[in-house]
Design brief:
By secondary structure, the protein is an all-beta fold. The chain is built from no helices and eleven strands.
């Protein structure tokens, strides 16, 4: 019903930048919150940043001032601009969206497949 395709991950040196994108497609009427999560090896998945349908944003403390989440509603896309990257930012980054569907009542959550971000020291 809904597909999420992420891109933009890769290998970067500490202090570098990457921009992640996540495009949602399918039988979508509207998208509410859009989030980025990450999971480092051996650790639990953690919420990195959220952008609401109204454009409000929220970040975990460790990325404030370095990461920026944004969305393009016309393209059903959420972005994560990551600057001043640190080795501890390494992990698999996942997007998550809450959507209303065309043929089904309610709000449903979908996850992307993940994209690897590796920051070398």
């Amino acid at each position: 019903q809904v597909q999420l395709v992420e891109s933009g991950g890769g290998l970067v040196q500490a202090g570098g930048s990457l921009r992640l994108s996540c495009v949602a497609s399918g039988s979508i009427v509207s998208i509410n919150d859009m989030d980025w999560y990450r999971q480092a090896p051996g650790k639990q998945r953690e919420l990195v940043a959220t952008v609401t349908s109204g454009g409000s944003t929220n970040y975990r403390d460790s990325v404030k001032g370095r990461f920026t989440i944004s969305r393009d509603n016309a393209k059903n896309t959420v972005y994560l601009q990551m600057n001043s990257l640190k080795p501890e930012d390494t992990g698999v980054y996942y997007c998550r969206v809450d959507v209303s569907l065309l043929y089904k009542l309610g709000i449903y959550s979908y996850w992307g497949q993940g994209t690897q971000v590796t920051v070398s020291s």
